[in-house]
């Protein structure tokens, strides 16, 4: 995949995870992420935290220039 596709995927993952976390604080759930809460509330919370962290990591890895020598 191209660099822009990875960055877009990372931002999408971050935004979905973060918005799901914020909305769950007020009792609202995104309809397509409801299945994350079926095993339990803790699993759903940890999965959303993982989505946010994974999004940040994907964006960081995509924008890093690996060919730069120090």
Strand segment count? 0
- What is the global morphology? elongated
Q: Which spans of ≥5 residues are poorly predicted at pLDDT below 50?
A: none
H/E topology pattern: HH
Distance between the termini: 27 Å
**Count of spatially separate domains:** 1
Proportion of strand residues: under 5%
Continuous helix count: 2
Q: What is the residue-averaged pLDDT?
A: 89
Quick one: biggest sheet? none
Helix content: 55-70%
Rg calculated over all Cα atoms: 15 Å
* Broad structural category: mainly alpha
Characterise this structure.
The structure is a single chain. The protein is 66% helix and 0% strand. By secondary structure, the chain is an all-alpha fold. It has one domain (3-63). The longest helix has 23 residues, at 3-25. It starts with a helix and ends in a 7-residue tail after the last helix. The model has no long low-confidence stretch (mean pLDDT 89).
